[in-house]
Amino acid sequence: MDETVLRRLLDDVRSGVVTPDDAVARLRRLPFADLGFARVDHHRRLRQRVGEAVYGPGKTPEQCALIVAELLAEPGGGPVVLTRADPPQVEAALRVAPGGTVTGTGALATVVWRSAPARPARVVVVTAGTADLPVADECAAVLRAYGLAPTMLVDCGVAGVHRLLASADELAGADAVVVVAGMEGALASLVGGITPAPVVAVPVSTGYGAALEGVTALLAMHATCAAGTTVVGIDNGFGAACAVARILP
Amino acid sequence: MDETVLRRLLDDVRSGVVTPDDAVARLRRLPFADLGFARVDHHRRLRQRVGEAVYGPGKTPEQCALIVAELLAEPGGGPVVLTRADPPQVEAALRVAPGGTVTGTGALATVVWRSAPARPARVVVVTAGTADLPVADECAAVLRAYGLAPTMLVDCGVAGVHRLLASADELAGADAVVVVAGMEGALASLVGGITPAPVVAVPVSTGYGAALEGVTALLAMHATCAAGTTVVGIDNGFGAACAVARILP
Amino acid sequence: MDETVLRRLLDDVRSGVVTPDDAVARLRRLPFADLGFARVDHHRRLRQRVGEAVYGPGKTPEQCALIVAELLAEPGGGPVVLTRADPPQVEAALRVAPGGTVTGTGALATVVWRSAPARPARVVVVTAGTADLPVADECAAVLRAYGLAPTMLVDCGVAGVHRLLASADELAGADAVVVVAGMEGALASLVGGITPAPVVAVPVSTGYGAALEGVTALLAMHATCAAGTTVVGIDNGFGAACAVARILP
Amino acid sequence: MDETVLRRLLDDVRSGVVTPDDAVARLRRLPFADLGFARVDHHRRLRQRVGEAVYGPGKTPEQCALIVAELLAEPGGGPVVLTRADPPQVEAALRVAPGGTVTGTGALATVVWRSAPARPARVVVVTAGTADLPVADECAAVLRAYGLAPTMLVDCGVAGVHRLLASADELAGADAVVVVAGMEGALASLVGGITPAPVVAVPVSTGYGAALEGVTALLAMHATCAAGTTVVGIDNGFGAACAVARILP
Amino acid sequence: MDETVLRRLLDDVRSGVVTPDDAVARLRRLPFADLGFARVDHHRRLRQRVGEAVYGPGKTPEQCALIVAELLAEPGGGPVVLTRADPPQVEAALRVAPGGTVTGTGALATVVWRSAPARPARVVVVTAGTADLPVADECAAVLRAYGLAPTMLVDCGVAGVHRLLASADELAGADAVVVVAGMEGALASLVGGITPAPVVAVPVSTGYGAALEGVTALLAMHATCAAGTTVVGIDNGFGAACAVARILP
Amino acid sequence: MDETVLRRLLDDVRSGVVTPDDAVARLRRLPFADLGFARVDHHRRLRQRVGEAVYGPGKTPEQCALIVAELLAEPGGGPVVLTRADPPQVEAALRVAPGGTVTGTGALATVVWRSAPARPARVVVVTAGTADLPVADECAAVLRAYGLAPTMLVDCGVAGVHRLLASADELAGADAVVVVAGMEGALASLVGGITPAPVVAVPVSTGYGAALEGVTALLAMHATCAAGTTVVGIDNGFGAACAVARILP
Amino acid sequence: MDETVLRRLLDDVRSGVVTPDDAVARLRRLPFADLGFARVDHHRRLRQRVGEAVYGPGKTPEQCALIVAELLAEPGGGPVVLTRADPPQVEAALRVAPGGTVTGTGALATVVWRSAPARPARVVVVTAGTADLPVADECAAVLRAYGLAPTMLVDCGVAGVHRLLASADELAGADAVVVVAGMEGALASLVGGITPAPVVAVPVSTGYGAALEGVTALLAMHATCAAGTTVVGIDNGFGAACAVARILP
Amino acid sequence: MDETVLRRLLDDVRSGVVTPDDAVARLRRLPFADLGFARVDHHRRLRQRVGEAVYGPGKTPEQCALIVAELLAEPGGGPVVLTRADPPQVEAALRVAPGGTVTGTGALATVVWRSAPARPARVVVVTAGTADLPVADECAAVLRAYGLAPTMLVDCGVAGVHRLLASADELAGADAVVVVAGMEGALASLVGGITPAPVVAVPVSTGYGAALEGVTALLAMHATCAAGTTVVGIDNGFGAACAVARILP
After folding, report:
1. A13 and G14 in contact by Cβ < 8 A?
2. What's the pLDDT tens digit per position in G172-226?
3. CA E211 – CA E216 distance, rounded (Å)
4. Is the model's pLDDT at A83 over the cut of 90?
């Protein structure tokens, strides 16, 4: 799926520079680094526009640090992102790779190295309540890593709809909007009805018991009457940022 | 739990008019009529303000007709309501008890006999879409039975919030509001934020697959950020009407 | 949606006191205070009868304290309520705003400032068991904030139905009843059958495994055969109190 | 697991009447009849007190008829029961085995051959509503097959608790009680609190959407606060009858 | 529902010993003790055969102790049981009421005072694995409180069916069997096929993730092919014991 | 939220052309047409870029036809779309508004009037199997209505990954990709890993029982390891097309 | 991933027989036939041992017939299987490709062309009840297509465990066992405990309501205490046969 | 079910060496050791090929140690495995039975004694991400216990499909493959499409909220389009290893 590389390889085979057996071996070896406990995908940035990120949960601090280092070792490799990291993971990664920017606390820190230069696209991140901030902050940190510094509109839940309408200009004029909302997730429908921009909704696991740890918001956002709104996984601020990075190349 | 009756009975026992054995038997026999297949609760209207209604599903047309007749046989007994009736049930009931008002079609007809006189309370029934009309109609029919002719606001889904705001006056000035909404049910949150009146939300089983036949709307309405909104069961327009009848005595 | 204000604004525009540009800006700025991490809705009390409450979970102690202070800064602004607060949140709020009344312990404290004067309406809060008390206490604290001191009937589960019938008078004579019940939530159906008053049921996350942390009670309360009973979210004593405040203006 | 038979077999082996090879073969062949599409368990009545019943769904009419015939072919074999049979299955079975008693209609008929003689135990079957009758009728038909003609108390839902209390004597004096209830299933808790007898609850798939086709009642019956109440599967009137037959040998 | 008491009361009214007003008051006051936080049901033992038990979770240690004391204060009142108690609750209860027998550890202790004399009925408690022991022990402790010392068969899971068949005699000869099983709960079906006795199945919240904390076993036990098996709630060893106490009076 | 309109209105008020009362009335009446059973949102196209579509289910054929006619009555109003229409609805709409293009059969027809002119953006719709075609066809019909004629890649399920890789060029060069997949929905993850374009995934309700009518695919698509993939509701080909129309203005 | 083909292609490139551009094109074109509505995977048999099967639901009869014809057009291509076909699909396929063997009726027919020659491996298919036969028959038909004629053991449910033990020899001596069971699915655990062979369990959507259309059996089979038992999807007899074909090459 | 033993016993009975009574007793006593809290199944290795393993959760350290000791006491008894053990359990077991090999940490250790000699079969364990390693390690430890040292392919998630294709040779040439994947579990479908070997998929409880602690992956793996893939329970690396041990005898 990397046509130029393939074509060049076949030319090399044709001209005898490379033997067929070597060619097979190379084809089998698209650029990734096998660390034993991880296959680091250096190729992903070319293929998907956003590079591979390191998802903290389930990894030891050492594994996090080594994968970050491997990604940073690639010259000109673009932003490197560590998400959902707990303090020992953050510390280990920063020891190996100083200079990362840390956003968030507890077990939800995002660390970014080598941010992309700022771009003019207007991205808005809007939250239903204050309790949605940690997820919105993760999203914003990853957006900033890709040069897309967002405008934050916090606490615009639909129970006081004027708080949202007060920001109608920002929403109507945005190039992309991320809606971060727990409880019943109704904010996504309302925003989807106000803006013509692409809307990416993030269900959040906040709220009393009937919020079912985000499942209620996820289902509600999918059943939205605001056509064209899309949804990412529960609490997945990182995924929403990546979706925006795909939309605004 | 019917203190006056009990007190009178005990007075009768005291004065010898009634033997203790008879008293026991009578206490055991609060006013209901045992039809064999049903125990018709004549006492309910006194106890709960709204009389017993006949729920169609699972009953034969004959059973529906006989229960309706039994309820109408009580002189001065207030409105009699048959809900979720299919055509054979409607036909059987009207044959036994002509003069009922039929609302709705298919397997969702509501039939009302002996409606209460109209009352001045302002009730608003608002729906998110046209597809929510059958449930809203059931609710309105039962409200009318109890003398509470509602204002209907149809198709005010949040994707076009100005359609709802156009009716903000009716909502702000209502004595009670019923919100009928399928899909993500967000309308309940929005209405709950606009009106100080009691809001009863009815989740409806409409929408694409992720609406999960009303479960999504039910959960979302419970996770609402509009404090003080209450919810009845899926598609239960009848229940919402009864709730309003309790609220506006 | 605040017609008088709007009309006055338009008059001012007409008379030249206000320029159209300023009018647009003002319309966009219905009264809320943007604290950066929260948009405090000063307008809510007018709009919804009950003011905005501060929901603790997901907020830092400082955020809780600042929002409480902002709400109290409004002169004549009515009761201010902080719910589901943990000890650091309670402490921070009371340091900034001394004089609040604290109900409940652990992570479930309710703090109330500036309670409304007592009103004569008869509200009954009935629980199925002793384990439902924390939720019932939250409900009662919020009711008292709004001047609606409730009668508490504790431990009236249906397995000993005479314990409930012993309080039939209070129930039959109430203006509104809140039923707080975990396990199978059957108490709501029974109470709904005894009283003509509006009944708001609160499912509670107590009970053995099959109680599914309140989902069983929530579903059962929705499937109730006692017509006109309404339901709020799991453990949402606060929401039930707000519903009563809407019903009894 | 049939010690006497085994012991006799081993005695026969010892005395040479039976060879070991035959003994192995016999041990492998506890009394069942292999019809190819079914292994009819003639031994079940001895082992479990209630004989094998034929469950209609998923079987062809011919298969139903042949299994019934096989069971009736056993002399002195006790009652034979065909459950959940649709009209073609009933017709096929009655053609092969005339004289069966049919209860119920549609796809829910129960057919009984060779009923046991009546026994004095007092069994009560109580239903919450008229719509629960088909399941209660299945239960009663199977109880009668085993000689346990039940008293039927129909339509005793908790919304009119006096209808149930009117039958408190029957309940308190019963040897076993079956509660058949859909919707929220609260009747089981109430009955469990009134009678000292064993209570078997049958959740029924009736009610509005939130009844979730019986799952709500099943969960609620399991979360009951009436200790010692037991539950069988949704709509499983047959299973409840078998449970009673185990309890009252 | 306590006919003798009622009849005597009415006789007293008739003879003038008691005024009707006092009678009403008394009727409203069936024997329970209102401790403020609990209505202790002294009448339950008469009504349900097993007395009221104290369920620990959600109660303070003091509340547990006071309810136990209240129950023990009734002379001749039968066994008193405290279930699911954690160490502080156990300690508080034993300080107020020394002499209780403690079974189980951690947050799952059962304490019994005033056990009933031993009775000859043969009860078998069988578990699928060693991990089911805590629930089985709760069940056994409550059974012993009611004089029904059970035989314990531990670790008879169906993966090694000979371990169960080795105890076929005990099972076939039992008066009642309790099956305690997590994971897939298949043991209930197997036992139900071996014994003619009443079988009460307890799903347990053990096993890998697909066991869904007992929900899988609960559903499987309800879908059992062994007719007449009944089920209680997840981990509810107490409920199973009460069910047996109802079955074996 | 339509600033220019509002500003002009206020100017008119200032200059006396419009009275304040009329202004209030107008503000309340953003352009929608109230048909009694529907509030047709003429304003939506301006606000959201895609105009209001008519969702068939739950509407009568007459209602569908009247709403379509109302939308077409707006001069220069852009495409009009009727989705999920059954034959009577299609027929009624075409009778009132001839010339619509019909896609799909049965209860899943899409009808389009007044398609937008074709645009050069490259959209790819890829399906996992042939059975996903009806949903993909709905998506394609709506895309064509908005001038975005898609390339269709049918039957590229991951079990034969070379079928997908054969189209890697189209995917890598696309401006937006819609993935339509039932069963386990894994195709979304794979496509998300191959293309840098925005990916909108549509879970489809096909597959054996464990596909849970699309819920499995929906959940799996949300749990995807391909960062930046977004999801719309089950079978919601229409919603996916609208999302693409937002992304590619 | 088809090394020999790739190596030969590269040799051809090297020797100049094939140009690099053609090579790229060929690599992109692993053997499948694009019928427009389907990409028929001729390569699958080599890759996965079992060829591609045609899954009926969601396809038109014509599509089924054309795919079958395409697969049969490959000379020496091994068995061709059409599953879950309804009568029009069967008829269309047999018209295009006469000589197929049809198993099953209604919407569940399996058609096989070009069966593989019989192989000696001993496969046993065991069902819990007669109602599981349609799924077991689908499994057997596919097994026979691959030359693995199974022994069928029908109606061996655990409620009469001797019926299973009677076939212990076949089970213990099998090379692979498929267990087909609805209801609680306990048969899988029991069989898994008796045989050392690989056990593939198929949950079936039969049984009363608590069977949840196969979900209960699926979960129970996953929570099995018989280590090493594996599971396929609900009603997926075809998948179980393919699993066996992988195990017994 | 152990024919030779049975036959010999019957021969002994016939020849008078064993009395029938003793024979019955022996038949009842297939080799297991009753430790009171556990019935250790020494017979399992013969019957199922893999011996009984000790599952840690829910057992005291002492119970774990005693069962391990009992299993090791059997001379020539094959590998002994303790799974899901926490540190106190590991310590207790190693004190009683030194020399065990420990894999994994925290509450997920696997301890193996008396490993089987290495065998030549090629088993591949492939994981989607680094976070799946603990489950994969459990699987590998148990495989090694049975002499099946696996090749580990770590971090081959489908978002970078070339990482998997790079190992296509190992997969295509394997005798059995275990796929360990959380999130959406799509790796199982992809691997199932690449290899003809038996594929056993293990869903893992990793990933953001929509992964539902492994339920999403479990369902997705069951809905797989790669025919013949089988699934074990969530996080059940042990079960997957046992399945492989059944497949490769």
Report:
1. yes
2. 899 999 999 998 888 999 999 889 899 999 999 987 778 888 999 999 999 887 8
3. 5
4. yes
β-partners of residue A80 are A113
Q: Is H195 on the interface with F (CB under 8 A)?
A: no
Across the interface, whether the CB atoms of H246 and G193 are under 8 A apart is answered no
Q: Please state the length of chain G.
A: 249
Which ranges in chain A belong to alpha helices (H)? 3-14, 20-27, 44-48, 61-73, 87-96, 133-145, 161-165, 168-172, 187-194, 215-222, 237-247
Is the minimum CB–CB distance between D237 and chain C shorter than 8 Å? no
Mutation site, E7, E8, E10, E17, interface B, largest B CB count within 10 A: E10
Q: Which residue has the higher pLDDT, F140 or B21?
A: F140
Do the beta carbons of residue E96 and residue E69 sit within 8 Å? yes
Contact between chains at D10 and H16 (C-beta distance less than 8 A)? no
User: Quick check: G167 and G156 in contact, CB under 8 A?
Assistant: yes
Residue G22: the pLDDT is: 67
- Select from C154, C147, C153, C158 the least CA-distant residue to C174: C153
Q: Is the pLDDT of residue G2 over 70?
A: no
For residue E1, what pLDDT is reported?
A: 33
Name the H helices within chain C: 3-14, 20-27, 44-48, 61-73, 87-96, 133-145, 161-165, 168-172, 186-194, 215-222, 237-247
E58/C132 CB distance under 8 A: yes
Cross-chain Cβ contact C20/F27 below 8 Å: no
Share of chain G above pLDDT 70, in %: 83
- Is the Cβ–Cβ distance between A32 and H163 less than 8 Å? yes
Go through E193-216 and write b for each residue having 16 or more CB atoms within 10 A of its CB, e for each that does not: bbbbbbbbbbbbbbbbbbbbbbbb
Strand partners, H201: H179, H231
Distance from CA of C170 to the nearest CA of E (A): 12
Q: Which is it for the CA torsion G215, G216, G218, G219, positive or negative? A: positive
- The DSSP element (H or E) to which E109 belongs, if any, is strand E109-113
- Whether residue C174 is predicted with pLDDT greater than 70 in this model: the reply is yes
pLDDT at F64 over 70: yes
Measured CA to CA, the distance from residue D248 to residue E175 in angstroms comes to 11
Residue D231 contacts by C-beta under 8 Å, 6 or more apart in sequence?
D188, D200, D201, D202, D203, D218, D221, D222, E222, E230, E231, E232
Higher local confidence (pLDDT), B20 or E196: E196
Neighbours of chain D (3+ CB pairs under 8 A): B, C, E, G, H
Contacts of residue A48 in chain H, CB cutoff 8 Å?
159
**CA pair distance E141, E115, nearest whole angstrom:** 10
Supply the Cα-derived Rg of chain B in whole angstroms. 21
Reported as a single tens digit per residue, the pLDDT across B150-192 is 999 998 888 777 778 778 888 989 999 999 999 888 899 999 9
State which residues of chain H have pLDDT below 70: 1-11, 13, 20-33, 41-51, 76
Chains E, H: CB pairs < 8 Å:
76
How confident is the model at residue E41, as a pLDDT?
67
Among chain F residues, CA nearest to G45:
F160
Q: Any chain H CB within 8 A of the CB of A236?
A: yes
- Which chains does A contact via 3+ CB–CB distances below 8 A? B, C, F, G, H
Among D3, D10, D27, the residue with its CB nearest the CB of H13 is D10
